[in-house]
Amino acid sequence: MGMLDRYKKKSGFIQLITLIETSSKQKQDQFLSLIGQEDSAWESALRSKLLTVDRILRWPADVLVEIFSRVQPLTLAVAFHGNTPEKLDQLFGCLSNTEKRKLLLMMSELNPTPAEKTSCLIKLIAEVRGFANQGIIKLEKFDHEMAIPENYEEKIHQASLESKQKEEAPPALVFPGDPEDSGRGSRDSQGLNVKDSGGKENGNRDASGRDEIEHLKKKVTQVNYENATLKHEIQVLKNKLEQIRKIA
């Protein structure tokens, strides 16, 4: 049983992305790496919908006002402590003068550790995700790429199936032709000159020999194809077994 199985049900994607967003950056990378080994379509979908502070700050001002008015000032003060003037301006631009002064005072008195900053950043992102899930902010209206559609798990599953079908498709069967043979009765399939004595018996023998050689060529090509297909299927099974061992 893969780690993704429990999340492939309805609303499972939101549960999984919330779990990842509330983890440290190191754990996020580990989660996504394991998920990618199990199903690259899920990894790609998760990365495309993962909330970050930088992404949030690109949202319209009225949306940021709605968000920051609902987040505790202490969380904002620690999360944005020591940030660039540009990011602080985006934060302060969404607050009233009173709220801005209060936040500036808190920042001047605080000296958070990296762990405390990480904790508050995670809390901020978790609250924003909660606002989206509750419909307080509607991602589809201002950042449709981050919105999670209804039954998104089924769409990822379909993308995953299509990806695996491409990966596991056997090599195309091709029977190589010999253009030099076309219209040249004076050469056999080995490229050797054949002297035409004009006799009917010799002509029939030559034609029969060429047919036999063509048949053998096709047989060799078919055997090579089957061999390549088996090698490909064995490699696919080996890759799947290795992924299962890493996840277990």
Helix content: 55-70%
CATH superfamily of the largest domain: Flagellar motor switch protein FliG, alpha-alpha superhelical domain
Strand content: under 5%
Structural class: mainly alpha
Order of helices and strands: HHHHHHHHHHHH
Report mean pLDDT, rounded to a whole number: 82
Tally of DSSP helical segments: 12
Largest sheet features: none
Count of all domains:
2
- Apparent shape: elongated
User: Unreliable runs, pLDDT <50, ≥5 residues?
Assistant: 180-197
Q: Please give the radius of gyration in angstroms.
A: 32 Å
Instruction: Give me the count of strands.
Output: 0
Distance between the termini: 9 Å
Oligomer: single chain
So what's the CATH class of the largest domain? Mainly Alpha
Output the CATH topology of the largest domain: Annexin V, domain 1
CATH hierarchy: architecture of the largest domain:
Orthogonal Bundle
Structural account:
With 248 residues, the chain is an all-alpha fold. Helices cover 67% and strands 0% of the residues. It has two domains: 5-163, Orthogonal Bundle (Annexin V, domain 1), CATH 1.10.220.30; 170-247. The chain has helices at 12-21, 25-38, 40-49, 53-57, 61-68, 73-79, 85-92, 97-109, 114-134, 139-142, 152-168, 200-247.
SSE diagram, text form:
Layout: H1 12-21, H2 25-38, H3 40-49, H4 53-57, H5 61-68, H6 73-79, H7 85-92, H8 97-109, H9 114-134, H10 139-142, H11 152-168, H12 200-247
Helix pairs in contact: 2-3, 3-11, 6-8, 6-9
